[in-house]
Every structure is written in C-alpha cells, then in structure tokens.
Design a protein that fits this description.
237 residues, alpha/beta, eight-stranded parallel barrel, 10 helices, 8 strands, globular, EC 5.1.3.9, RibuloseP-bd_barrel
C-alpha cells in the first residue's frame, strides 16, 4: 500500500493490535486464530491491524483485506530488543506482504554488534519503499528513528525498557512531545486500557493510536476486572 494512502486511512483512527504468542490463552500451535479477532476489529471499524508472526500477517490480510502492521517477536542471545530485531525477520515480513514493518528502535544492545542506526540504514537500503514503523520508549529514540528515515514512530516501548517511565497508563507526555516535534506521523501505543484513555491519547496530537491487550487479550481483560473486585470488595466477599 502506498504511504499516502495508508496514512490517510489511519488518520485519527484506532488500529487494533491482534497478537497471540506462545503461552497466551489465544495462541494455538496448530493454526492461527487471530484472523477471527481481526475480523471483529474490522467489523468495529478498525482501519488497519497490527499483528505478530508471519502466519498471522498472512491470515489477517486474507481474512480482512485491511493493511497490516507486521512484526515478529523473537529473543536472540545477546539482544535486548525482541521486536523484529534482525534482517531475517524483516525479510520474512516483507515476503509475507506486511504493509508496514514494525521494528524495535530502542537504543538497547544488539547481538550482531550493530547500532540501531546501522540496522535501520541497512533495512532502508534493502527495502527503500517499504513502510517502516519504529517502536520506541523515549523522546530521544523517537527523534533518532525519524532522522534514520522511518515512516512513522510509535510509543510502543515506553515503560518496557529499563530507562523509560513506569506508568500505569499511557505515556501521554511522550506522545505529545513526539507529535509536536517530529515531521512524520506519531502513533500512540502502549497501556491504553479504556475508551477514555484512547480519546485522551488522540488529543495529544498523534496521528493515530494502537490498542491491543484491552481488546484482544481475554486473560488480561478478565484479570483487570477480578483485580478491581478483589481490591474493592475482597474483605466483604
């Protein structure tokens, strides 16, 4: 999908993240079932889907016809980053037809000895027309990714690196600062648990938002209800 078409499609909208990795309730080894979650997201009005794994990228595109932000979560020895950390995953996502490839663009250690800047340069050199989304945890990482030539920056990793703020909810400040200063679209993502938080995130000036666990992870959703009940009514039950 052309960049302008994709960006126009998602402007001011909520992208739904439909992911299930091994160990989660909706992960099935034999086949992908995330296309069903993506079907529901499309019916609700989501203009695009974010998903992990090659099989889910393919299944969701076939089921919904929506553009897909694809990533691969994998841990390698020596790597602190785990979202599309090497060229191997980038190659696989491009081959699978991901409209956007999402990469961990934090400044954390890379096992191949390259810097994130060197990695992004290599990716852009190999795939000059591929849309790239940088998942970052701080303002400095967002600025760096923008200068490295990515097409959009997401606040995905805020709170998930040792040096970023540990918040219970969305990092509105990071969204606001990046949206104000970057000359490319900023995607607000991370710990958006309620419709009210989704609205507040969009009010920061970001181009679009991504919501995942609050919609597509039933164990997380149920756990939030149960935790609230136990904290408020536990002694009286």
């Amino acid at each position: 999908m052309e960049k302008e078409v994709f960006l126009k499609k998602i402007r001011g909208q909520m992208i739904v993240s439909c992911q299930a990795v091994p160990g989660e309730a909706l992960y099935v080894e034999e086949q992908s079932i995330m296309y069903l979650m993506a079907r529901a997201a499309k019916l609700a009005g989501s203009p695009a889907i974010r998903t992990s794994s090659i099989r889910d990228v393919i299944a969701i595109k076939e089921e919904t016809g929506l553009p897909v932000i694809g990533l691969i979560k994998i841990t390698y020895p020596g790597y602190e980053s785990y979202i599309t950390p090497t060229m191997k995953e980038v190659d696989e996502l491009v081959e699978a037809g991901a409209d956007v490839v999402a990469l961990d663009c934090t400044m954390r250690r890379r096992g191949d000895g390259t810097t994130i800047n060197e990695f992004l340069h290599a990716v852009r050199e190999r795939y000059p027309d591929q849309l790239l989304m940088a998942d970052v945890s701080t303002y400095e990482e967002g600025v760096n990714a923008w200068k490295c030539g990515v097409d959009m920056v997401g606040t995905t990793m805020s709170g998930y690196t040792d040096y970023s703020p540990k918040l219970d909810g969305p990092d509105y400040d990071l969204m606001r600062r990046l949206a104000s200063d970057l000359q490319i679209p900023v995607i607000g993502e991370g710990k958006i648990h309620t419709p009210e938080q989704a609205v507040e995130a969009l009010k920061t000036g970001v181009w679009a938002i991504v919501v995942g666990g609050a919609i597509t992870r039933p164990a997380e959703i149920a756990g939030r209800f149960i935790k609230a009940i136990r904290e408020d009514l536990g002694e009286t039950l």
